[in-house]
Amino acid sequence: MRKMLRNMNLMKKLIVLLILFVVIPILVLDLVVAKKLESITEEQVGNALLQLVRGSHLTLDRESSDFEEKTEKIMISQEIQQLASIPSSSEYERFEIFKKLDKYLSNYSTNAIRYSMFFSDTDKQYSFVPNSDILNNGIFYATDLNALSWYKSVSQAKGKGVLRVIDKFGYNPNNVKTVAYLRQLNSIYNGETVIGYLLVSGIETPLQQDFSPFDKYADGQVMLLDQENTVLATNTEKFQIGSTMPVAADKVEGVYKLKEAGVEYMHVLHTSEATNTKLLMRVPVQSIIIDHISVQRLVDWIMFIYFFILILASMYFIQSILKPISRLARITNSYHPGRPLAISMHSESKNEIVLLSNHFIRMTDRLNQTIYDQYELELKHKEIELSILHTQINPHLLYNTLESVYWHTFMEGATESAEMIKDLSLIMRIGLSKGKLLIPVMEEMNHAEAYVRLQLFRYEYAFKVHWDIEEDAKKYLVPKVILQPIIENAILHGIKHMSQDGELWIKVRSRNGLVTISVEDNGYRQADIDMLNAILQGKESNRGFGIINVQKRIQLHFGGSYGLHYSHRQDQGVRAWIEIPAILDENEWKQPPA
Question: Which UniProt keywords apply (predicted)?
Fold first, then answer.
């Protein structure tokens, strides 16, 4: 690769470098960000849909409660309860009973929802009554209730209502299914006496009307399922009532994704213990992120156009450099000391390379003028000195300005703002430290205290800080500004969101030739200590730049035996501690060989 670049001209090198270090990194970053945004979009939409499904399921449960109340009213009515004590009667009397019940029940039926009752007629005393194969609803008598598909589950419910998918009553050559609310009618005087069975069919109609909140999701498929995952109500023709929807046994509630026939679906599932039903919504993931994809495509086109313009502009820019450089090369090649150049100066231009060519021509005319050359060198030397002095003056100027602003603010009565400015100037002053790399523990603590005060003000004193600094340890030297990144991590990742419950403990001890500085927090989130220590050991890259900086500076000064460590705090939170040798003079420490 290096040999290939060496043999390329400058234009090709520029294009290759642009592609390697600009185009490819930005494209990779764009891909990573797009995937992350796609994941965040799916998560946020999934959570929103789960809340919508929960709310809709509560509405469906209320529908079931309405049917329970109505069937309860029918069961305890005098017309039904008196059937438990009616003695054997003549056919005429039985016909009158049938008519009276049919008239009573017809008051509850509507076009969509139909009420029916089934009674046992083992003696065939009601053979004159049409069966359910002829009538859509009404009063029916069965010689063998066990032959009815729903009988076993309803009788086992002992009077509780159940939802079941059954064949529609009446003429039904296509075996059209309907959802029925079924309930065993018991005597209120003798709970063991079964009067009959009440069926409310066609309830999928009101249930499906409650799916209206899902209408804005055109591709969404919503299904109400029973415990056996049988479809009770749906808003899609793909899954008919009575069909079985495959749902994993371990899926009770939540959001998960499944791939079916090459299409990835987001499944949002909620289970109701009140009705023993599940409400499932299926949405193609593609339809969720379609807006994100459209925006991403727009960004991709903008980036493509940008890269194209960037390459054209770079080619133009390099050409504007190459031509003057080529002319300068010709001038340099034709020059011989002591001989005037046959090439005249180029017209005045703001192009730096053209200016350089003109300066070179002028320089050749004055090359033998030793005094001028010496003067020019001295002038350039002084310019460099002034530049260095300028870079030293600016931080001191900023510090002195902050001191002036502090006193001005203090005199105006804004003490809180003044104290913040004072803390900021203190941080600036300790950052300068007169060029020193090692400062006493006391100065480092002053810097840390100033930083903590600024953070307390920023977060409206939402946490407490406990300082425990051993007096004898204040004199030892430490690398400057090593506590601030550790305290910042403890606040941001530990106690930032704990309201008034967050606490920091900052301790300094000197024992057996070592200075130990610890920062502890009682953060409620479980920290990955192994990952933090792996970062400090250089096993994790592209993260933890603050603590890596602290670790490297400590080990550059004192060697690999010292540095920063992390562990879980005994009660709750994280403990970070630094171990360095206890020294009073930087010159007395000799770093052991690596």
Answer: Cell membrane, Kinase, Membrane, Phosphoprotein, Transferase, Transmembrane, Transmembrane helix
